[in-house]
């Protein structure tokens, strides 16, 4: 377990480092930063002065080291549009996205695990087919379109839920549904496939032979083994939701980091984009690291190694 | 599941399915029903491809021609009274014929989906086959690249890159191609790895075949079926992503009739003209559904009838 | 009179059939099987693989796969009708009054839980006592089945044990609630030859010690000769001969039994280089209607009347066989 954990941690560190380099490069690709900072009407010598003042004339590798060092302490620079620092902007918006993605995950797991279990238990029943149809359809619907359908139904026609904004909890319901819907099919298919395999396993037959109550057989002996890959995938899906939040938050004008990212990209406010990219990527790296460790721990065969 | 390569790739489910010798992960539908799915999706896909190719002849109007007098005409199935025979599916808020735009939109979706899939397939297959064949450091390097790629939020990176380089078709294709290769790599790695240990590969090595020759002649034909399945899946993904990027205004640029862009343009008037978001959205949905079902059908055909 | 109708039998099976629908037609995997096990008695069910002996034990436990259909005139444990019992009652009986030991100990233990957890849960769920008592019982039984450091083993996971040790765990698990009847389905087939005998001896000892009924399914007739009180020989889903072990071994009445006995290597009676007996031919397909004696295609004594259904014949000391041959015919074959 320790050997595995150390190897996994090293991989995560290497990935985090590479991702930071990619985020850094993105800002450089976006054009000459000195010109952007100096403004459209700046004279050539002003641009040059800014270039020296911000250290933009130094070798790229030094600039990167400098930037990384500051980023590690939470200083991502200044927004070109907002008066706040990038760090403050992200801290301000991140809780909304975290709440949204968590709700989305709860919805996705709440739908996919019972549905996947039921589909595996009653294979080839109408319920199994319905679940499969939902999964196939869910994977084919563009998420922004599904979000708009929700808006049309619950927001405009029925008038139950607010269609945009961040003010109340009600504002989070439709976005969370849209995000959760997107993650449900793959989680459900995996739960079903895992349950089908596990239900045919000899140890489940042993559990029946022991005369354990059905719920104990299904949950303790079957689900416990089927759920391990689902946990791993759920973490990946949570990370994907942070990325998918760009689309969903934009549809609902929900003030999270996804919406901020879209706004900033549209305004070419690249220091903000860079900061968000780094935060989201690092979050994903940490999340998958923790999941792999948790999974290793859940599997006694790896834990005891 | 964490193993020797701790990559929590969503492709692992697919990788497991593509395992050779492939045990059927699950038997979902009776065979005749699956064949109906396969034939049906192939027919729908063929119809869309033909419609896209024949758009210049099929489309009743120029998809870019604006006519402010004919703005927001409803299609026949919405309001037969106000509908006009010249515009059977109505017009958008600039008075452009919706049917023509939908037909031309199919070209954009198919074009971007196909070429993005080709680009990502070439990158991912190369990486996966190399990693699976050579193992060791090559494998570690590829699994590192896959992990790195997975930690990058696709839509954000795509939006940022498109905003830097502009939203031309070529840029969108390349961006998506460079972001969607991970599943190819994961699946091809495990498939190649499994084929690699078989006797006929050892035999080929023993009689002194060169490595590229072995890869091309022995490995590739054996992993082709998994390749086709992933390709269909990635093409569908690319189409969905292009639609999302265009919807967010940072993909295909107006006045090109991308379906995602059409949904975006229609959302301003969706309260009064809901059909305007329904049509392009449903078009994306049907296309993606057909591609996914075709991939599933091909997988079910190539995977032997396994345990129930 | 067949053993199934004897009063006082712990397990009564009469006219048991298992049908499995397949694409080619209905597979009659178990056909009109009647068996009985008394308290303190060991019944060995022998036959080639695929003869339906494992399905018979699963059918008794009510653990057949959902597609398989079970029918029986009577299926009773200690006088209680198992066919009429509701699912709840069956669960209460399984693990408590009747326990089963499976073929492959490598896959029959849940990899996610400790040995102790899996041993104790059967005790606590059947309401035999609290976790403390379950723990003590588990330690005592692991020691009894011959595992060193029993208390320490409880916190281990299945993958940390060898196949032989796992099968000992499975045996201990079956005994947790002191069942009246234990069904052991080829408990040593998946194990190394060197440890098979130890496991069987252990089973035989425990059976005698705890005065249980034991139904041991095996294809190894050599094993049967050592530990069986009664023997049932199955062929193609049917019991072709059943009776006290001594009688069946010394005076078999069915050619198939004779053939099986000739396959046992007997070092003291055989000349080096002498060939072991074999039974030529293949087991017939059991898909669709099966008419007459299923063994007639491989039988050296087959007669025209074998093509008609053969009614069971009974000898003294509850010996049953399904063969038309008159007595004495098989002696020459020995």
Characterize the structure shown:
The complex is a heterotrimer of chains A (305), B (308) and C (334). Chain A has 305 residues and is mostly helical. Helix content of chain A is 80%, strand content 0%. Chain A contains 13 helices and no strands. In chain A, helix 8 runs antiparallel to helix 10 (214-252). Helices cover 67% and strands 0% of the residues of chain B. Chain B has twelve helices and no strands. In chain B, helix 2 (31-53) crosses helix 12 (275-302), helix 4 runs parallel beside helix 7 and helix 9 (199-206) packs across helix 10 (211-247). Chain C is an alpha/beta fold and 334 residues long. In chain C, 30% of the residues lie in helices and 22% in strands. In chain C, the strands form two sheets. An eight-stranded mixed β-sheet of chain C has the order 7-8-9-3-10-11-13-12, with helices on both faces. In chain C, strands 1, 2, 4, 5 and 6 form a five-stranded antiparallel β-sheet that branches. Classes of the chains: A mainly alpha (305), B mainly alpha (308), C alpha/beta (334).
| N-to-C series of helices and strands of chain C | EEEHEEEHEHHHHHEHEHEEHHEE
Please give the CATH class of the domain at 108-258 and 287-302 in chain B. Answer: Mainly Alpha
Q: Looking at CATH, which topology of chain C would you report? A: Rossmann fold
Briefly note the structural class of the backbone of chain C: alpha/beta
Q: Could you give the distance between the termini of chain C?
A: 28 Å
Q: What Rg of chain B, in angstroms, do the CA atoms define?
A: 22 Å
Structural class of chain B: mainly alpha
Number of helices of chain B: 12
Q: Count the strands of chain B?
A: 0
Q: Please outline the major beta sheet of chain B.
A: none
CATH topology of the domain at 108-258 and 287-302 in chain B: MetI-like fold
Spans of at least 5 consecutive residues with low confidence of chain C? 1-6
């Amino acid at each position: 377990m320790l050997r595995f954990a150390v190897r996994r941690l090293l991989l995560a560190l290497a990935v985090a480092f590479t991702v930071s380099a990619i985020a850094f490069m993105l800002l450089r690709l976006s054009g000459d930063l000195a010109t952007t900072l100096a403004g459209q009407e700046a004279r050539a010598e002003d641009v040059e002065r800014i270039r020296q003042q911000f250290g933009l004339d130094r070798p790229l590798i030094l600039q990167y080291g400098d930037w990384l060092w500051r980023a590690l302490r939470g200083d991502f620079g200044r927004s070109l549009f907002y008066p706040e620092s990038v760090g403050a902007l992200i801290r301000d918006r991140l809780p909304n996205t975290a709440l949204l993605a968590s709700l989305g995950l709860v919805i996705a797991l709440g739908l996919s695990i019972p549905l996947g279990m039921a589909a595996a238990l009653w294979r080839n029943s109408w319920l199994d087919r319905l679940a499969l149809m939902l999964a196939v359809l869910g994977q084919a619907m563009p998420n922004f379109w599904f979000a708009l359908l929700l808006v049309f139904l619950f927001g405009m026609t029925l008038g139950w839920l607010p269609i945009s904004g961040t003010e109340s909890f009600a504002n989070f319901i439709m976005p969370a549904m849209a995000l959760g819907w997107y993650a449900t099919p793959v989680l459900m298919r995996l739960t079903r496939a895992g349950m089908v395999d596990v239900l045919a396993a000899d140890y489940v037959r042993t559990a029946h032979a022991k005369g354990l109550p059905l719920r104990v057989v299904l949950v303790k002996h079957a689900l416990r083994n089927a759920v391990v890959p689902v946990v791993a995938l759920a973490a990946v899906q949570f990370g994907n939701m942070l990325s998918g939040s760009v689309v969903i938050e934009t549809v609902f004008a929900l003030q999270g980091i996804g919406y901020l990212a879209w706004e900033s990209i549209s305004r070419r406010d690249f220091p903000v984009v860079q900061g968000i990219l780094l935060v989201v990527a690092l979050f994903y790296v940490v999340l998958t690291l923790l999941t792999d460790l948790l999974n290793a721990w859940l599997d006694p065969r790896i834990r005891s190694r | 599941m964490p193993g020797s390569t701790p990559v929590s790739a969503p492709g692992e489910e697919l990788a497991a399915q593509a395992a050779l010798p492939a045990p059927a992960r699950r038997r979902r539908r009776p065979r005749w029903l699956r064949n109906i799915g396969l034939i049906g999706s192939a027919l729908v896909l063929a119809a869309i491809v033909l419609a896209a190719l024949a758009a210049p002849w099929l489309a009743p109007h120029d998809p870019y021609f604006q006519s402010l007098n004919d703005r927001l005409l409803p299609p026949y199935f919405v309001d037969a009274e106000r509908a006009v025979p010249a515009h059977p599916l109505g017009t958008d808020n600039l008075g452009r014929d919706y049917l023509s735009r939908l037909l031309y939109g199919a070209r954009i979706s198919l074009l971007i989906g196909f070429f993005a899939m080709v680009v990502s397939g070439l990158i991912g297959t190369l990486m996966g086959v190399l990693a699976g064949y050579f193992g060791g450091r090559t494998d570690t390097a590829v699994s590192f690249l896959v992990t790195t790629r997975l930690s990058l939020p696709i839509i954000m990176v795509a939006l940022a890159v498109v905003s830097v380089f502009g939203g031309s078709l070529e840029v969108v294709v390349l961006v998506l191609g460079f972001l969607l290769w991970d599943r190819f790599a994961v699946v091809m790695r495990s498939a190649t790895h499994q084929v690699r240990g078989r006797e006929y590969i050892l035999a080929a090595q023993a009689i002194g075949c060169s490595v590229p020759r072995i890869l091309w002649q022995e490995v590739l034909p054996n992993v082709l079926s998994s390749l086709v399945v992933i390709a269909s899946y990635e093409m569908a993904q690319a189409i969905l992503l292009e639609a999302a990027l265009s919807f967010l205004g940072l993909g295909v640029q107006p006045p090109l009739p991308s379906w995602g862009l059409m949904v975006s343009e229609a959302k301003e008037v969706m309260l009064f003209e809901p059909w305007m978001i329904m049509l392009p959205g449903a078009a994306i949905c049907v296309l993606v559904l057909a591609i996914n079902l075709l991939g599933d059908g091909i997988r079910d055909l190539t995977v032997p009838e396994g345990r129930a | 009179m067949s053993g199934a109708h004897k009063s006082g039998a712990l397990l009564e099976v009469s006219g048991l059939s298992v049908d499995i629908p397949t694409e080619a037609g209905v597979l009659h995997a178990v056909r009109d099987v009647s068996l009985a096990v008394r308290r303190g008695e060991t019944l060995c069910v022998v036959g080639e693989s695929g003869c339906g002996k494992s399905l018979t034990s699963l059918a008794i436990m009510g653990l057949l796969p959902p597609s398989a259909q079970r029918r029986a005139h009577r299926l009773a444990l200690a006088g209680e009708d198992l066919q009429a019992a509701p699912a709840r009652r069956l669960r209460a009986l399984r693990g408590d009054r009747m326990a089963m030991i499976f073929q492959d100990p490598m896959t029959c233990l849940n990899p996610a839980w400790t040995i102790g957890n899996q041993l104790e849960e059967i005790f606590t769920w059947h309401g035999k006592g609290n976790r403390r008592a379950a723990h003590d019982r588990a330690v005592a039984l692991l020691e009894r089945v011959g595992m060193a450091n029993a208390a320490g083993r409880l916190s281990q996971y299945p993958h940390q044990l060898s196949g032989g040790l796992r099968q000992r765990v499975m045996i201990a698990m079956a005994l947790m609630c002191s069942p009246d009847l234990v069904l052991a389905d080829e408990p040593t087939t998946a194990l190394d030859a060197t440890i098979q005998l130890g496991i069987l001896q252990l089973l035989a000892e425990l059976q005698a010690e705890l005065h249980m009924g034991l139904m041991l399914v095996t294809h190894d007739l050599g094993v049967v000769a050592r530990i069986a009180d009664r023997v049932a020989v199955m062929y193609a889903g049917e019991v072709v001969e059943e009776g006290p072990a001594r009688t069946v071994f010394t005076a078999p009445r069915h050619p198939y039994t004779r053939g099986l006995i000739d396959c046992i290597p007997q070092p003291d009676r055989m000349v080096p280089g002498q060939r072991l007996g074999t039974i030529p031919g293949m087991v017939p397909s059991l898909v669709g209607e099966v008419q007459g004696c299923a063994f007639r295609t491989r039988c050296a004594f087959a007669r025209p009347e074998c093509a008609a259904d053969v009614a069971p014949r009974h000898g003294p000391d509850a010996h049953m066989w399904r063969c038309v041959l008159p007595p004495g015919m098989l002696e020459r074959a020995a």
